[in-house]
Specification:
Blueprint lengths: L1 H60 L7 E3 L4 E4 L8 E10 L3 H8 L1 H12 L4 H4 L2 H16 L7 E11 L1
Antiparallel strand pairs: 1-3, 2-3, 3-4
Helix pairs in contact: 3-5
C-alpha cells in the first residue's frame, strides 16, 4: 500500500504542476495586458498634454488689445414703453473709448450724451431689452448715436455694469 501511495504522489504532483503552469501562463498574459494598457494610456496622455501645451502657446502668443479709456456716465432710470404694465429700467453703463481725449469731450457734452442715451432707452419695451440679442442691439445703437457726435475718438464698446428691469 505504501508503494501505491508513493506512485500516486508523482502523478498528483504532475497534475498540480500542470495547473500551476496554466495559472502561471494566465497570470503572465494578465500582466502583459496591464503593461500594454499602461503604455498606451501613458502615450495618449503624453500626446494630449503635448498638443494642449502647443495650443496654449499659440493662444498666449496673440497679443490682447489694451482696454482704452473708460467713461462712466451717471445712472439712467427710465420708464419702458410698455402698454401692458408699468415697468422701469435702471442701467449703469461704461463707455470704452478709442482715445483718452474723448473722455474730456464727453465730460463737456454730458447733458447731450444723457439726452441721446435717454432717447434710445425710452422707446424700448420690455421685450426689446429682456434677452441677450436685445441688449446687444441696445449697446450697438447707443455706441452709434454717440459716435455720430464725437470728434475725438469713438466709443469702442458699451458695457452694462448694472441692468435692472422691474
Amino acid at each position: 500500500m505504501a508503494k501505491d501511495v508513493e506512485k500516486n504522489k508523482p502523478e498528483e504532483q504532475a497534475v498540480e504542476n500542470g495547473k500551476e503552469k496554466k495559472r502561471g501562463s494566465k497570470l503572465k498574459w494578465i500582466i502583459i495586458g496591464v503593461v500594454i494598457v499602461l503604455v498606451l494610456g501613458g502615450g495618449g496622455a503624453g500626446a494630449y498634454f503635448f498638443m494642449n501645451k502647443s495650443a496654449n502657446k499659440e493662444a498666449q502668443a496673440l497679443p490682447k488689445p489694451p482696454i482704452g479709456a473708460v467713461w462712466a456716465p451717471d445712472v439712467f432710470i427710465i420708464n419702458l414703453a410698455d402698454s401692458e404694465a408699468d415697468r422701469y429700467l435702471k442701467v449703469v453703463m461704461n463707455f470704452e473709448l478709442s482715445d483718452p481725449l474723448a473722455v474730456a469731450e464727453l465730460d463737456v457734452m454730458k447733458p447731450k450724451v444723457r439726452d441721446m442715451v435717454l432717447s434710445v432707452l425710452t422707446v424700448k419695451g420690455f421685450k426689446d431689452v429682456n434677452n441677450f440679442e436685445g441688449k446687444q442691439r441696445l449697446k450697438e445703437e447707443i455706441a452709434m448715436r454717440l459716435n455720430s457726435q464725437l470728434t475725438k475718438g469713438k466709443v469702442v464698446q458699451v458695457y452694462f455694469t448694472d441692468f435692472v428691469v422691474q
